[in-house]
Amino acid sequence: MTDEIQPDINITSTNAAVTMTLRGAITLPYVTQLVADFATLPMDRTVHADLSGVTRFDTSAA
């Protein structure tokens, strides 16, 4: 039996940056759309996407 980590997104914000931390199995189009949505927000901070916790990118839906 294989344990799979459920997809999880954690967003933290400081005066310098907004960081999205993604974990679990996530579809690539979802990540791409999420980053694109954040890029359109009127922010004066850098947006970082931390994908180090992603266990699998499901590209079958791409």
Per-chain topology:
Layout: E1 8-13, E2 17-27, H1 28-39, E3 46-58
Parallel strand pairs: 2-3
Antiparallel strand pairs: 1-2
Structure in words:
β1 (8-13) and β2 form a beta hairpin. The protein has one helix at residues 28-39, and strands spanning 8-13, 17-27, 46-58. The chain is built from 1 helix and 3 strands; from the N terminus they run ββαβ. It has a 3-stranded mixed beta sheet, covered by helices on one side. It is an alpha+beta fold and 62 residues long. The chain starts with 7 loop residues before the first strand and ends with a strand. The model has no long low-confidence stretch (mean pLDDT 78). The longest helix is centred in the middle third of the chain and has 12 residues, at 28-39. The chain is globular and about 35 Å long. The protein has one domain.
Most strands sheet = 3 strands, mixed
Task: Give the overall average pLDDT.
Answer: 78
Radius of gyration: 13 Å
Q: What class would the helix/strand composition place it in?
A: alpha+beta
Broad shape:
globular
Spatial ordering of strands, largest sheet: 1-2-3
CA-CA gap between termini:
27 Å
Considering DSSP H and I runs of 4 or more, what fraction of the residues is helical? 10-25%
Low-pLDDT segments = none
Q: How many β-strands, per DSSP?
A: 3
Sketch the topology as an H/E string, one letter per element. EEHE
Number of self-contained structural domains:
1
Q: Tell me the strand percentage band.
A: over 45%
**What's the helix count?**
1
